[in-house]
């Protein structure tokens, strides 16, 4: 139907209006789909499709040389009953996340509070503290960590100069874990900036009201600052926990998972299984377990949030 | 709060400055040591300033290993990162406009899908994506690093841009449409220019992440001639096996240079970007 010709009054019937409305809606819908099509192709082709395929693969044996062999639940059974390295990788990752993430958030919150006291120069210092967040995941920083914590590296030289015992950072399980934790905590700048933005959102009249009620500094902090900040603490906790579970580059390059698999993080083991042992079925099962773990952790934080996150 | 007590100010500044030094120490140490001669890397390990300056670490490192120099790695990284930035800007902005302004069927459902992928761990799709790209014969090419970004590969960018577009008054779109402008016309001529600050943020983060990316090149780029700086640096580290730290740290410093330059010029966008959206 041509719309460019003027319509006579007789032609504008309710049916015509309805039809025209539908036609417009359809065209609008098509334009919408055309516009989101890049994402739509990526979503189905690169995420949903591969996820379904990976779910199927997780029930098979597949080494990329011969066709996948259906083995039922045996990958999952094997992982939990007959793979000490898998259990070790879970332990290492949990230890890492449970120590590093709360420490990182504590640092970021503490410094955000410090910078929120309105003293001069806080802009420059926040910028400086933010730098490690930008480059902390790079290969270059992993190179630096390897040398600095090496046997004759900068840190041991300092320990020696101060008359302390040197530490074999790469030969000792807890020392190796510690340097990875230090590297993650060092990158507290990003959550710190998010906290600072949150602190600046807290309306002054809340503090004034608390003052009128006779609240002191500490009381104001507990009764106003912390409750008002809980949504942001929650947000940072979710983001950092998920990222913590996926830590790969640093462990892969600095400790290589060692010594004796003590820093064999989940992502490192998954990479080994998939791309060094070419055990794609087994790796797919591991990927799905990771999704379940991260999902469960996120759900736990979400569920618990009703008790401690304060929304206005 | 404590305008009266100067003592607390003094403690504050001492702490904050000392802590800055601690924060920057690894970075300063890297730059400093990149100028140390090999013997001094260990004999003078902790110091930030070399006793003897050895400028030759840079040309020596630049030559790389196995006949492939860092000029190749830098060229590859610039190409990949440049493509990723362009792809992210184009695809994410148009997708964001579609989601923010057009009422198509299943929009709510698809938006929920988009949000749910923001936090999806990359490890889940690593293996199947690899198998897919292997089928397409894309392993050992740049495609696996670039193509996903032309298909809205970073949902967080789309989300960020949607939020920004929602802040632009709808009346502008409607007026242009009444004037006979098409939806694409509105997007291209009206919304895109107004999105500039958000696009700068997207471009910077896309650059930083792509430049830093190690896992994807590790999986897909096997031949030395097509490796990026991050992967080349790692192989350089393995090839030197801890024998020539000077050139290795020189190249480490150089590899961070683009990010530092970007940070210096655009730190306002970066800081505001994280503060408003929470991206890292």
Description:
The complex is a heterodimer of chains A (312) and B (280). Chain A is mainly alpha-helical and 312 residues long. Chain A folds into two domains: 1-45; 85-308, Orthogonal Bundle (MetI-like fold). Chain A is built from 13 helices and two strands. In chain A, β1 (60-61) and β2 (69-70) form a beta hairpin. The longest helix of chain A is centred in the N-terminal third of the chain and has 44 residues, at 14-57. The radius of gyration of chain A is 27 Å and the shape is flat. The mean pLDDT of chain A is 88. By secondary structure, chain B is an all-alpha fold. Chain B folds into two domains: 6-59, no CATH class; 67-240, MetI-like fold. Chain B is 74% helix and 0% strand. Chain B contains 14 helices and no strands. At the A-B interface, α1, α4, α5, α6 and α8 of A face α1, α4, α5, α6 and α10 of B.
> Stretches of chain A where pLDDT falls below 50 for ≥5 residues?
none
Number of helices, counting only DSSP H or I runs of 4 residues or more of chain A: 13
Number of domains of chain B: 2
Largest interface: A-B, 97 and 91 residues
Q: What is the C-level CATH assignment of the largest domain in chain B?
A: Mainly Alpha
Helical proportion of chain B?
over 70%
Q: Give the integer mean of the pLDDT values of chain B.
A: 88
Secondary-structure element series of chain A: HEEHHHHHHHHHHHH
By CATH, the topology of the largest domain in chain A is MetI-like fold
CA distance, first residue to last residue of chain A? 53 Å
User: What proportion of the residues of chain A is helical, as a percent range?
Assistant: over 70%
Beta-strand content bin of chain A: under 5%
Gyration radius of chain B (Cα, Å) is: 24 Å
Which regions of chain B are unreliable across 5 or more consecutive residues at pLDDT < 50?
none
Strand content of chain B: under 5%
GO cellular component, one term (chain B): plasma membrane
Family (chain B): Belongs to the binding-protein-dependent transport system permease family.
Membrane topology (chain B): Multi-pass membrane protein
Subcellular location (chain B): Cell membrane
């Amino acid at each position: 139907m041509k719309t460019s010709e003027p319509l006579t009054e007789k032609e504008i019937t309710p049916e015509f209006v309805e039809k025209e409305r539908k036609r417009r809606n359809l065209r609008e819908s098509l334009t919408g789909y055309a516009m989101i099509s890049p994402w739509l192709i990526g979503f189905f082709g690169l995420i949903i499709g591969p996820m379904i395929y990976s779910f199927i693969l997780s029930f098979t044996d597949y080494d990329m040389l011969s066709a996948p062999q259906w083995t039922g639940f045996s990958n999952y059974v094997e992982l939990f009953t007959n793979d000490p390295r898998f259990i070790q990788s879970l332990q290492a990752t949990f230890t890492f996340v449970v120590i590093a993430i709360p420490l990182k958030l504590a640092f970021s919150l503490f410094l955000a509070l410090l910078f929120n006291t309105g003293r001069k120069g806080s802009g420059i210092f926040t910028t400086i503290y933010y730098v490690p967040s930008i480059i902390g995941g790079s290969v270059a920083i992993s190179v630096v960590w390897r040398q600095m914590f090496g046997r004759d590296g900068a840190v041991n030289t300092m320990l020696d100069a101060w008359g302390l015992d040197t530490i074999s950072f790469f030969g000792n399980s807890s020392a190796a874990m510690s340097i990875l934790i230090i590297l993650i905590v060092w990158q507290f700048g990003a959550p710190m900036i998010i906290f600072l933005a949150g602190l600046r959102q807290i309306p002054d009249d809340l503090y004034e009201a608390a003052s009128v009620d006779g609240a002191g500094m500490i009381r104001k902090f507990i009764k106003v600052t912390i409750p008002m900040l809980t949504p942001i603490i929650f947000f940072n906790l979710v983001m950092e926990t998920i990222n913590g579970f996926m830590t790969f580059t640093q462990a892969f390059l600095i400790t290589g998972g060692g010594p004796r698999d003590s820093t064999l993080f989940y992502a490192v083991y998954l990479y080994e299984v998939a791309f060094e042992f070419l055990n794609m079925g087994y790796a797919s099962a591991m990927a799905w377990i990771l999704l379940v773990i991260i999902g469960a952790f996120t759900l736990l934080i979400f569920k618990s949030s009703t008790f401690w996150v304060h929304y206005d | 709060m404590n305008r009266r007590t100067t003592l607390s100010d003094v403690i504050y500044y001492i702490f904050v400055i000392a802590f800055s030094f601690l924060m920057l120490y690894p970075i300063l140490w890297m730059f400093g040591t990149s100028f140390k001669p090999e013997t001094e890397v260990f004999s003078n390990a902790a110091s930030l300033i070399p006793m003897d300056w050895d400028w030759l670490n840079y040309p020596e490192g630049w030559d790389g290993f196995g006949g492939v120099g860092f000029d190749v790695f830098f060229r590859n990284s610039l190409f990949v990162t440049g493509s990723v930035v362009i792809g992210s800007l184009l695809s994410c902005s148009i997708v964001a406009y579609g989601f923010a302004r057009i009422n198509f069927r299943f929009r709510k459902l698809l938006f929920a899908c988009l949000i749910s992928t923001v936090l999806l761990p990359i490890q889940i799709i690593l293996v199947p994506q690899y198998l897919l790209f292997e089928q397409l014969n894309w392993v050992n090419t740049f495609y696996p690093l670039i193509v996903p970004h032309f298909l809205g590969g970073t949902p967080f960018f789309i989300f960020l841009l949607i939020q920004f577009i929602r802040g632009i008054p709808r009346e502008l779109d409607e007026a242009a449409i009444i004037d006979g402008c098409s939806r694409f016309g509105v997007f291209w001529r009206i919304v895109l220019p107004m999105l500039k600050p958000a696009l700068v943020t997207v471009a910077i983060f896309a650059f930083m992440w792509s430049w830093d990316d190690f896992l994807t090149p590790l999986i897909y780029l096997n031949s030395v001639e097509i490796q990026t700086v991050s992967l080349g640096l790692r192989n350089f580290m393995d090839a030197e096996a801890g024998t020539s730290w000077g050139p290795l740290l020189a190249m480490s410093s150089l590899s961070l240079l683009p990010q530092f330059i970007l940070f210096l010029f655009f730190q306002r966008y970066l800081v505001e970007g994280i503060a408003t959206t929470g991206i890292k």
